[in-house]
Design a protein that fits this description.
Toll/interleukin-1 receptor domain-containing adapter protein; Toll_tir_struct_dom_sf; Rossmann fold; 14% strand; 223 residues
Length: 223
């Protein structure tokens, strides 16, 4: 099946080459359940940064299923200066070439005069994945907790949440997210790259699922 996809990608893609992504991917995250470092499972991150300009990745980034939503990533963070700076740096990294992911950063992208909670709920629904920048300030921010609950309500077991922690003891990690693997930005220098790769993997899986569904529908019609 994988070989068939490779042939399909090569036969369909005719896009200009992009610059190759220069970042190493660390193959470990910190599971909230065991609170210890553990290698990712084979279903977690299948794309590496070396595939930044591959035809397969370009096909995924230009797939119709990706563009069904307005944003690739919704970023939730607190109002403190340090958290705003961290979130802005993360978004700048994700939006840079070659992937140019589409991010929602509420301070930048929320409409002036709009109701904050309504705007946030709509952005959560319009995003493929949700990144939570969890810090001590995040835990004390009612707005952040509201956004986290909205993200959980949209898909608590859908692999669409990416928790990031910084300057946070594992005992402070929210119980609502105990089933999620998190990335510790304080200890992992490649944390941004891991987020980028996780988003690409999700979009790749989503695209393949849509292709398989489309092939099944075509087969049923022929029969």
């Amino acid at each position: 099946m994988y070989g068939w996809f490779q042939k399909f990608f090569k036969s369909r893609v005719a896009l200009p080459a992009q610059h190759e992504q220069e970042a190493g991917v660390t193959k470990h995250l910190t599971p909230s359940a065991s609170r210890a470092s553990s290698p990712l499972s084979s279903t977690s991150l299948s794309l590496s940064s070396s595939s930044g300009s591959s035809p397969q990745q370009r096909f995924v980034l230009n797939s119709d299923v990706r563009w069904e939503k307005k944003y690739d990533v919704f970023v939730c963070h607190s109002d403190t200066d340090s958290d705003i700076e961290e979130a802005t740096c993360l978004v700048s990294f994700l939006e840079a070439s070659p992937c140019c992911l589409r991010c929602f950063l509420w301070q930048r992208d929320a409409s002036p005069g709009a109701a904050v909670f309504s705007e946030v709920c709509q952005a959560v629904q319009d995003s493929h994945l949700r990144v939570l920048l969890i810090t001590p300030s995040f835990l004390q921010d009612d707005r952040c907790n509201y956004m986290m609950q909205q993200a959980l309500a949209e898909g608590p077991m859908s692999n669409r949440l990416i928790p990031l922690i910084q300057n946070l003891h594992h005992s402070q990690y929210p119980l609502e997210l105990k089933y999620c693997y998190y990335i510790d930005l304080s200890k992992n220098p490649n944390g941004y790259t891991l987020v980028n790769t996780t988003v690409l993997h999700y979009l790749e899986a989503l695209t393949k699922k849509e292709m398989i569904h489309g092939c099944s529908m075509d087969g049923s019609s022929s029969d």
